[in-house]
Automatic annotation (TrEMBL):
Its EC number is 2.7.3.9. This is phosphoenolpyruvate--protein phosphotransferase. InterPro entries: GAF (IPR003018), GAF-like_dom_sf (IPR029016), PEP-util_enz_mobile_dom (IPR008279), PEP-utilizing_PTS_enzyme (IPR050499), PEP_util_C (IPR000121), PEP_util_CS (IPR023151), Phosphohistidine_dom_sf (IPR036637), PTS_EI-like (IPR006318). It catalyses: L-histidyl-[protein] + phosphoenolpyruvate = N(pros)-phospho-L-histidyl-[protein] + pyruvate. GO terms for biological process: phosphoenolpyruvate-dependent sugar phosphotransferase system. Belongs to the PEP-utilizing enzyme family. The keyword Transferase applies. The lineage of its organism: Bacteria, Pseudomonadati, Pseudomonadota, Alphaproteobacteria, Rhodospirillales. It is found in: Cytoplasm. It comes from the Bacteria. GO terms for molecular function: kinase activity; metal ion binding; phosphoenolpyruvate-protein phosphotransferase activity. SMART domains: GAF (SM00065). Its main location: cytoplasm.
Amino acid sequence: MAPNSGTPPLLIDPGLDVPEAGTVATGAPPDAVTTLRRSADAAGGARRLLARLRDVMAAGGTAQSRLDKIVMLIAAEMGADVCSCYVMRAGEVLELFATIGLNLDAVHKTRLRVGEGLVGDIAAHARPVALANAPSHPNFAYRPETGEDPFDSFMGVPILRGGRVRGVLAIQHIARRAYDEQDVETLETIAMVVAELVATGELVDNRELQVANDLVLLPSRLDGVSLNRGIAMAVAVLHRPQLTIRQMVADDPEMELGRLREAVDSMHSAIDRLLILSGESGGEHHEIIETYRMFATDRGWLSRIREAIRTGLTAEAAVQQVQNDNRARMASVTDSYIRERQLDLDDITNRLLQHLAGRQDKADGGTLPEEFVLVARNLGPAELLDYDRTRLRGLVLEEGAAYSHVAIVARALDIPVVGQCTGVLSRVDPLDFVIVDGDHGQVFVRPAEDITEAFLKSIEVGEERKREFAAARELESVTRDGVPVRLMLNAGLLIDLPHLHATGADGIGLYRTEIPFMVRHTYPDTAVQKETYAKVLDEAGDKPVTFRTLDVGGDKTLPYFPDLGEENPALGWRAIRIGLDRPAMLRKQLRALLWAAAGRDLRVMFPMVAEVSEFIRARRVLDLELRRLAQDGVAPPRDLKVGVMMEVPALLFQLDALLPNIDFMSVGSNDLLQYLFASDRGNPMLNNRYDLLSPAMLSVLRMLVRRCEAAGVQLSLCGEMASRPLDAMALLGCGFRTLSMSPGAFGEVKTMIRSVDVGVLQQFLDSLLGRPDRSLRLHLLAFARDHGVRL
Ligand code: PEP
Ligand code: MG
């Protein structure tokens, strides 16, 4: 389908004059009395029509005959000379499936491409068009076989389902006639019923639909941003799937109004309960209630739903119709705040539909396909982990940023991820076959066979590369000029642990302890924590493990932790700040680590330290617990090393005081970049705005290498940049000799290491750092190419 942006929302040409191209005239809302009178008329008309439509459906007959009757009915009820139904076919073509008033020989012959003619324009922009003088409109496409010469006025609406255009329903009048918004709404209501009938096979013969589906639901390619490499092919599961509405038409509007009232009340109570449970009016719950209030108190929203019910729709269908209508109107809005409100409204609509269906549970209901690609607007890392990892093949997000924790968790799961895939939720239906190309940041929806085959070949090549990288496991991690580089694993889930041996890692450079906390529904007590940490140490054997204490806050929320609704969670109460303010929590975690380590080596690292004094206070808590060990009869660790994450720039200016107090430092480049450049790591708008390979970032890193070397402090880097071969090459150039990365990166990074002459690289990088460039990426890429570095 053609893009929706940049087009006027609704073309209504109310007068009899020739309209100018692109005339927009939804106009100011009519006064209240006129609106009431008109809506009462329209409601009556639409209700009659819907009732008769149901009779036609109940009467049976072939699909074509029913479709023919339906266009006849619409024409009769709306006093139109023509009513036609176009259905989407292969190649983004709209085929005339049924008509009354146009030449019948044109049925199944007349075809218009999406974007061609008025019908194509409606489909391209998913919006209604109403014109008094259609032939004079620049988009009018004359088809002699239809015999439409005598018809002056035209009104058409998209047949929408699941946010996609499935066809177009149009009426025409011989005489010039000014259509109004009520006319448009009536036709939209009918189109909604037609859409459901098309989709359920009630209206178009199922076999025809089958062929049509293969052809109609075109393969489409959506561009996004690669958040993790690799290719996945599977059917789609929508994180918040649309409920299927089975019954569109109702006999008793009063009963439907009652159902709506009950559902709204029950939704209201559920949201109140959420608020009470959260204990705070903050965070997501606060947003939900605010959004709910905004729409619930916006009389327009509920009253439009009620009005739609009065036209004869079921409560569900009415809610859906108002949503479709909103979406079509919002399609061309580019203002991000308003678009965000539309997403909120989608959320509320889905909630309301669930309450109408009497279901407030998770929509997948535990019936996940054997293999699936998850498609979501955005997800928290814990929400991702809610899905069965053994079946999850890939992830596609409408939003999502490279350093968001959901992307990090997805990398740990080693699944391809494409983020910022605008519009994917409206293009993909549940169980659509999709290909996630994480290498190029693209998603293919219902791909054609040749595309699928090409990807199958790519997967083969990828497997071959994986085998090559797996073979690299046995090779030493040493540069071409003989400098050894220690490669460590980033982990946080027990399923990560087998990677420790599969990758040949030298140890775990970052164990994110918060991840086991995030996947639980209650706070784990000391014994449970001890068990987890002991398992990690058992699995690691004699390889070192660096445990980072709880790093929650920001986008890492715990289900059982109060949501504070902070304005800037990334700058908020998180990580060691929570640990120091809630020392009991920190003590319990440190006790669990000490118990788990008993008699073995232990490395403990504190996250988000901004002041040396914070480190010292945290270290004191550790010492306190260390002293308690004897009372508990537990052996102390054989060797205890304590370090910090370098993430907050303030710490860069306290190195004189810090370095003598720590055993090691690990750079958290994800956070360091965000704080150095004041650039939210989770904000997709800022995704590539600042580069890790900027002179600023690389100068800081090189300085840290020098200072740590001089102080005899071990230094490593455990942010995502260590997982990318070119970035990792730059780190070697800065002097890093220990890198900690996600499991999927080992092969590539080791291959790069073995092909680089780090002496030459270091000199090259030194010569670059004073440049005014925003990024040195291209220079480093050129270096790699010129010096045969394998990236
Ligand atoms: C980092 O900030 O680079 C880091 C490794 O920590 P996290 O991504 O878990 O915040
Ligand atoms: Mg961090």
